[in-house]
Design goal:
Blueprint lengths: L2 E2 L8 H20 L1 H18 L1 H20 L17 H10 L3 H15 L12 H15 L2 H19 L8 H4 L1 H4 L6 H37 L5 H20 L1 H25 L3 H24 L14 H16 L3 H8 L5 H32 L5 H8 L1 H10 L4 H30 L8 E2 L2 H18 L3 H13 L1 H40 L1
Length: 527
């Protein structure tokens, strides 16, 4: 049973106020000096993503392999917490993992990502046939949203779950997870810097994540209601999302779990409309083929760097523009999401947490990309609509709305889309709010929640900045690029956290095995 934060626990005003001031100043700089900021961030992105891209690729493969090794080793038997029964049922737990992480982005990108790849040249394959375009454009989204990016969440989630439920840490912060390696340094300036950087990076990411979906949501709402698309309509959409996740977060983890279940119902309803209202056999067969193509080429896709940049403009190629970009994008979000997964995994073993999270996250993601993506792809390959051309000329939102026009019940589809995305974003930001509010409290037990006023404060912060940034699209783009650049140092911090997790496991496991043997011997003697 979760309980609110105790009155005696104090707010860490440095963690609460300083990151907010920093992001406001950064936004002002980007707004007032966009050319200078664009040049500086462009150079930074070129170094971190283009020149050091191989580091992201190595890190991704390493985290995936290490997570599976830990899951199937004897460390996988360690239980997260003393409770013998998981706090949430398997369905609710899996739903919370999917809907409270990247679900809104997954729904958006599953509708349009294939259209970007349709005219691209993966592996520098010139003059691709229609079949090759179809196969690669349906396979690469599964790869970019598959096991490797989910590993960026799942392995740190196991580490945080161990920190919270086994080590009973009074602080739920990234710096605390670094303690096994950094020791008492996390109590000084270094630890404070890690936490400040984490919160600033998260605020930058959350301030821009709405930029992709808001045009789609306002466009869908305009079509359904007959209203005119405008910034005011976009603000109404953002306020509606804020109202939903503020209401849910006031009810704590119980409210988030209920909202997650609602998200799943809306998601499945929309998926059913696409699957059974469209070319069902084509959707299933293309998805099955795509899974096989990813499995067959997984190692090549995971290590392809295109050294000659033949698939791009000579400066950056397909893996730099897409694969490395996505790895950095997921890493930049791993500041908070793994904390939430770790928190809700109490009562499960490390093996159950890792493998269960992969099953819940990857299966739901694959279903989304297969059903929604292949419906639009069918329109493209059969000549019913040039979705790829619309994406290139008018943007993804216009292309997605065109896809919905071909549904048997387009208005119903748009209504489900709006409701699902609002619910998904609300669920995601509920989880983020719980995590970042915990950052703001100096000491908090693993069975406690931050106070309601603190949660509401962060709800307001999360929505005010996106509204302010709606009026300058170049600023949105720059902030998004900045959040991607922030992924590199976050990646280094996650490396320290994983090393600390392994150190704790090696140190603690012999003690736990001794306790289990003692209890077993005592039980045999009693008989």
């Amino acid at each position: 049973m979760q309980k609110p934060v105790k009155p005696g626990q104090k707010i860490d005003w440095g963690i609460t106020v300083f990151p907010l001031a920093a992001i406001v100043l950064l936004s002002a700089y980007l707004l007032l000096c966009p050319d200078q900021a664009n040049a500086a961030i462009g150079v930074l992105r070129g170094i971190l993503v283009n020149d050091l891209g191989v580091v992201y690729m190595l890190f991704g493969l390493g985290v995936l392999i290490l997570s599976l090794v830990i899951a199937f080793s004897r460390y996988g038997n360690i239980q997260l917490g003393a409770s013998k029964k998981p706090r949430y049922s398997s369905f609710t737990w899996g739903a919370m993992i999917f809907t409270s992480t990247m679900a809104a982005d997954i729904l958006y990108w599953s509708l349009c990502e294939w259209s970007y790849y349709y005219s691209e040249m993966p592996f520098a394959m010139e003059n691709m046939t229609l079949a090759q375009k179809q196969d690669w454009s349906s396979a690469y989204p599964l790869f970019h949203w598959g096991p490797i990016p989910w590993a960026f969440y799942i392995l740190p989630a196991a580490a945080y779950g161990y920190m919270m439920h086994v080590k009973k840490s009074p602080r739920q912060r990234m710096s605390e997870a670094c303690r096994p390696i950094l020791g008492k340094k996390v109590d000084g300036p270094l630890g404070k810097a890690i936490d400040l950087f984490a919160v600033i990076g998260l605020l930058a990411a959350t301030a821009t994540t709405f930029s992709t979906a808001t045009p789609l949501l306002s466009g869908a709402l305009a079509k359904v209601t007959g209203l005119t698309e405008s910034n005011m309509l976009a603000i109404i959409v953002l306020v509606a999302i804020a109202a939903v996740f503020t209401l849910a977060v006031m009810f704590g983890m119980k409210g988030i779990s209920h909202l997650s279940n609602i998200c799943v119902v809306l998601f499945l309803s929309l998926a059913a409309l696409f699957l059974f209202g469209g070319p069902t056999k084509y959707i299933i067969e293309t998805g099955f083929t795509a899974i096989g193509k990813v499995a067959q080429n997984f190692l090549s896709m995971s290590t392809w760097m295109d050294p000659l940049r033949l698939s791009g403009d000579g400066v950056s190629g397909f893996p730099q523009n897409w694969t490395i970009f996505y790895w950095a994008y997921w890493i930049s979000w791993s500041v908070a999401t793994p904390f939430f997964i770790g928190k809700i995994s109490e009562g499960r073993t490390i093996r159950q947490t890792i493998l269960g999270a992969y099953i819940a996250g990857v299966s739901a993601t694959f279903m989304s990309f297969i059903v929604f993506g292949n419906y639009g792809l069918h329109l493209q390959v059969t000549g019913q609509a040039d979705i790829a051309g619309l994406t290139a000329s008018e943007g993804a939102s216009s292309a997605i709305l065109t896809i919905f026009e071909h549904l048997p019940l387009p208005t119903v589809g748009l209504i489900l889309l709006v409701l699902a995305m609002i619910a998904f974003y609300a669920s995601t930001f509920d989880a983020l709010t719980m995590v970042i509010a915990s950052y703001s409290v100096k000491n908090i037990g693993q069975d406690e929640e931050p106070g309601k006023k603190l949660r509401i404060f962060w709800c307001v912060v999360f929505i005010v900045l996106p509204i302010a940034l709606l009026f300058n699209q170049s600023t949105l783009s720059l902030l998004q690029t900045l959040s991607i650049c922030a992924a590199f140092p976050i990646m280094l911090i996650i490396g320290v956290i994983i090393a600390g997790f392994l150190k704790n496991l090696k140190k603690d496991l012999p003690k736990k095995e001794a306790i289990i043997l003692t209890e077993k011997d005592s039980g045999e003697e009693s008989h």
